[in-house]
TrEMBL record:
The keyword Electron transport does not apply. Keywords: Cell membrane, Lipoprotein, Membrane, Signal. It is a lipid-anchor. This is Nucleoside-binding protein. Belongs to the BMP lipoprotein family. SUPFAM superfamilies: Periplasmic binding protein-like I (SSF53822). Gene3D superfamilies: 3.40.50.2300. It comes from the Bacteria. It comes from Saccharomonospora viridis (strain ATCC 15386 / DSM 43017 / JCM 3036 / CCUG 5913 / NBRC 12207 / NCIMB 9602 / P101) (Thermoactinomyces viridis). Residues 63-364 form the ABC transporter substrate-binding protein PnrA-like domain. The keyword Hydrolase does not apply.
């Protein structure tokens, strides 16, 4: 036990030149829990059989949420899934359209209707904001397959929900945040205060507290439920992140879409570290100028879900899709680009295996 604790402290103290070094407890003092053992190679992995699938007859419609392609986050991940389907499955045609922050429900319905009328099938709606629109449009086109990311409330025979255990991936980056914090003080910045984004908060907080009973955690949302501008306001993200840093937080995790760029900029300007979301944001071109502060990203593999959905449509086998894309399916997780968490991968993999095995149950709702 003493050896494990010493190893954990040493791992946390190393490789963190970019972190803030202000007052507060040192990283070694912050970690109070023994790290679980790393699983054996191959344990907990789900392997898919490689089969040739021909999707050349499919025309795929992609209805983006606000921010669209190029948001360095959620929408880009969905786009990557379609791009992979074009390259590997031979999808013949695609179309894209992006929502605006102030558009009406009628505009969303019109976007989906136009795609269906033009023969696009399947059509993928990116984000829970499309739930009412897809519920209204899908019955009018019973021969068209629809999917909606992040919503499972639509009960239509031709609508497939693509939902995730965001809380599980967020737990792992909560662990990483504590291991890399010099101040024993971390922060969470949510885009819009909805049950979906609260899942990111819940997992992050639970992961951080699983590692340390001393850690302080700042929690802020950019906008209340109903105001989706919180996903596309980097300026507000910057202001809120800087306020958390002023309070002592030196590792910030955002689940705020395009607003996350402002969080990264605040971290860079104040010698803090940041954690990205959805995609591997260290590799995103739109945030390349601040990537040196992105220590990891919580990977929500929307690209995997979108690609698997298109593949399932091509095979006429939608029943093959999981009810929820989770850690066991490698559909959520964490990135290692940039090398800043290489020294704690064993720790993260140990916690991951405990979640997959059911030894740790991650809550999808905040504790308070």
């Amino acid at each position: 036990m003493a050896g494990v604790l010493t190893l954990a402290a040493c791992a946390k103290d190393s490789g963190n030149d970019n972190a803030a070094s202000g007052g507060g407890e040192s990283s070694g003092e912050c970690v109070t829990a023994a790290a679980p053992p790393r699983p054996e190679a191959g344990e907990g992995k789900r392997e898919k059989e490689a089969e040739d699938v021909d999707a050349s007859d499919l025309k795929v419609g992609l209805a983006f949420d606000v921010g669209g392609r190029g948001d360095a986050s959620f929408n880009d991940a969905a786009a990557a899934g379609v791009d992979k389907a074009v390259e590997e499955l031979g999808v013949s045609d695609t179309t894209e359209s992006t929502a605006t922050g102030t558009e009406s429900e009628d505009a969303k319905q019109q976007r989906l209707t136009q795609m269906a009328q033009q023969g696009y099938n399947p059509i993928i709606a990116v984000g829970f904001a499309y739930s009412d629109a897809i519920d209204a449009v899908a019955p009018k086109f019973p021969d068209t397959q629809f999917a909606i990311v992040d919503d499972d409330s639509v009960d239509q025979p031709n609508v497939t929900p693509l939902v995730f255990t965001e809380e599980q991936g967020s737990f792992l980056v909560g662990v990483a945040a504590v291991y890399k914090s010099e101040n024993c003080h971390v922060g969470f910045v949510g885009g819009v205060n909805t049950p979906l984004i609260q899942k990111f908060e819940a997992g992050f907080v639970q992961g951080a507290k699983a590692v340390s009973d001393k850690v302080k955690i700042e929690i802020d949302y950019l906008t209340p439920a109903g105001d989706i501008s919180g996903f596309n306001d980097p300026g507000k993200g910057n202001v809120v992140a800087e306020a958390q840093i002023d309070k002592g937080a030196d590792v910030l995790y955002h689940a705020a879409g395009a607003s996350g760029k402002g969080v990264f900029e605040a971290a860079k300007a104040n010698d803090a570290l940041a954690i990205g979301v959805d995609s591997d944001q260290y590799e995103q071109k739109t945030v390349a100028d601040v990537k040196d502060v992105i220590m990891t990203s919580m990977l929500k593999r929307v690209d995997v879900a979108v690609y698997d959905f298109i593949r399932a449509v091509a095979e006429d086998d939608l029943d093959s899709l999981p009810e929820r894309f989770d850690l066991a399916a490698d559909a959520v997780g964490y990135s290692t680009s940039g090398g800043m968490v290489d020294d704690i991968v064993d720790v993260l993999e140990g916690y991951k295996q405990q979640i997959v095995d059911g030894e740790i149950e991650v809550s999808a709702t905040p504790s308070n």
